[in-house]
Amino acid sequence: MGSREIKSPEGGIETPAKLEEQYSDTNPRKKLGFYFIESDDRRTAFGRGYTGGTTPVNIHGKPIADLSKTGGWFAAFFIFGNEMAERMAYFGLSVNMVAFMFYVMHRPFSSSSNAVNNFLGISQASSVLGGFLADAYLGRYWTIAIFTTIYLAGLTGITLCATMDILTPNQDQCDRLSLLLGNCEPAKSWQMLYLYSVLYLTGFGAAGIRPCVSSFGADQFDETSPDYKFHLDRFFNFFYLSVTIGAIIAFTAVVYIQMEHGWGLTFGSLAIAMGISNFVFFLGTPLYRHRLPGGSPLTCVAQVLVAAFRKRKAAFSSSELISLYEVPGKQSAIKGSRKIAHSNDFRCLDKAALQLKEDGVDPSPWRLCTVTQVEEVKILLKLIPFPACTIMLSVVLTEYLTLSVQQAYTLNTHMGHLKLPVTCMPVFPGLSIFLILSLYYSTFVPLSRRITGDPHGASQLQRVGIGLAASILSVAWAAVFERYRRNYAIKHEYEASFLTAMPDLSAYWLLIQYCLIGIAEVFCIVGLLEFLYEEAPDAMKSIGSAALAGGLGCFAASILNSIINSVTGSTEKPSWLSQNINTGRFDYFYWLLTVLSVINFCVFLYSAHRYKYRAEQQIVTKIKEDLIQG
Asked: Are 88 and 250 in contact (CB under 8 A)?
């Protein structure tokens, strides 16, 4: 077996006894310092080769001869349109589907809200599947192409449900009073099965769009350019701006279409917009830069865990120990990934890379892994707390989409002589996001730069922290205002009229919580998108973008609602989340969300304090290597 030796940052050959000393409890933080012996006979998973993670290729998988003719902002704008249309459909369905199920399918608010929450959850949780397929097998372009077609098919099915009488229950003799009393003819089970099928098919279609569009857009910029960081920072802000524009259109134009032209044209307009965005996306195909998929990243993770478990009893002082294992050259055994230097975190996983004499000349990747494989798993473990901390933000956002609409039904939505529809109210977070993004570089960055000294105003994790803090203020205000609104309704004898607006209480008090949650979204989501793209391993960028955990937040909201209904409700008293908002206790529920958000924020602060950016670690490693070589 041909081999060659490469010095680690610490330098010097270490004996097995010294290795044992470095892993001893008396010196737990001492860095490993020994030779990595690189084998020329490494067999990679599935027989795949390896390539540099920074090499852009065309749609046929071949290197691009002239990069100046591809990528850049021009290519990115073709990608923005796809995300804008997907977000327009996503928010258009989320804000209108509860009302459609209530008024047309004659389902109660509670079951309608849970169905929409499940749709939101599927559309976000399935993003992990899309990210996996993109990173492992299909690449980002083909993943987007396949799933955006599925999305369009689902929207078409929903449009048919709203336009064909056979797919909806009889609407005769179903007035407002009959709806409130539950006397309207309910939808048949097969009608609801059809609606749920096409609704969840639409949600599943988002699996290949949500995790891949942002990463695919970021792939269009040259990592070797001195302005790369500048362009990447602005790309993610413009990307979220396109998301916001899609949401604003959904909460205004789509709502207007519903009021003036009915449900069929409402859902049809979403399908048409999605179809146009698909056409534009495919039109830009010759301009795109692609990254080759690197094989299953989950398989690589499983190999490390299995190999570490199988060698859990191997001692670092063993005479059978040869080295830590790595392949030769600058590129790793993982297709699409660069090599990663060894670190001292999660040392139990290092046993997966321990090369023993018993491993033989051609070891199984399920028994011996490279240092880079092990380090990628370590990186994922260190990143997990940050998307996990967005679960509470997603819970709050999900609850706002349904509960705040119920609040708005009881409030006066007049703005002068103009009366805004209740379903337009969620447009205000979008408007606040639009305003913040517009002022971000001219106002926030210069001010925060003076405080933090960071050239970008605030680091990625600092922005996430600002967003989580704003979400706490938002939900706390929601609790305060809801208590006032409920007491006002009871005092003025509106307790039984939960769909009647109180003329003297303006719905625009809700703008405070909407604007604060808009601030939370801008700082938290944009900061986390950029953070995960830069910090995730090369071959796991799409899965990193999918790890925002929004889907878990939506499912968590449904589970939390069910628990609250079962714990607080009984035959003698309504639950906190009663369909009649005036007899329920939405204020208690908002305070519960506030407490959970504070706990979540504390966990985030602890995790962020301990985290070290990969760029900082690489600089430290480089300095040590220079000192050794000098």
From this structure: yes
